[in-house]
Amino acid sequence: MTQGDGGSGGPGADGGADAPRTPLAHRVPDLGALELLLAVARLGSLGRAARETGISQPAASGRIRAMERQLGVTLVERSPRGSRLTDAGTLVTEWARRVVEAAEAFDAGAHALRDRRDSRLRVAASMTIAEYLLPGWLIALRASRPGTAVSLFAGNSAVVARRLQDGEADLGFVEGTGAPAGLDGAVIGRDRLVVVTAPAHPWARRRDPVPAAELAATPLILRERGSGTRQVLDAALRAHGGLADPLLELASTTAVKSAAVSGAGPAVLSELAVGDELSAHRLVEIPVDGAPLRRELRAVWPIGERPAGPARELLSLTRRGG
């Protein structure tokens, strides 16, 4: 074989492995057209096939003609007595039946996947949201999705982020100055942190607000590092020398609140968490001057993975206020 002969049959020749191919979607009729052809074959009438598939007869005729142009063969012969498949139409109909059956199997499989996804919802939330906001949202979700089993894990913002990144939660909620690294999210509300003490504490008898620098220098009852509350407090007092070493460092909002009520010292908590204690005068709110103690509440999820199914519905409930 000469070098020239060898070149004529190489991979670059027409039809070879490296030749560009038109995408399949441009070469094969769409499912709607194939279903219409199957209806014509079964009913023997283009008009009846059009009614069965929910389109007008002119639209059905146009779809058949477009399919014939695409395939380069005549599929249907029309006459006053009805519509009859040509020999080519009969062959294409058999192929169409297999394609439609495969599409139905694909759709059934996708439906099963959605059902499996929608049968459970795993939520991870930081303490304040888990204790004071999520119960109402989950009650509302259950009213619309009674078949969805919901599991809730409460932890600090850092733990919530880790659970989402490890695929152990479908949706997360955190408090803080922004979304944790590696996560996307949406602001669903805002919250105010308040300094509180027991009524017998000296700050409770002060007439003037506590300056931010004094708050920073005072040992406080605090949440652990990694919590949204601690993150916001660190940021608010950084310009005033930063936080003093904690008087107590506790892992839950309830524990911090109990220590403050007992008179152990001042604490910083969400106003959502201390409403009852303030109303009952078990705690006193201490005004602070010079420290912005506000934070955003966020729904979060891994970057590139938008919430779907019950997670998306729960997210919608939070934006409607439950």
Automatic annotation (TrEMBL):
GO terms of molecular function: DNA-binding transcription factor activity; transcription cis-regulatory region binding
Pfam families: HTH_1, LysR_substrate
UniProt entry tagged with the keyword Transcription regulation: yes
Residue span, HTH lysR-type domain: 29-86
Region (Disordered): 1-24
Biased composition (Gly residues): 1-15
Identification of the protein by name: LysR family transcriptional regulator
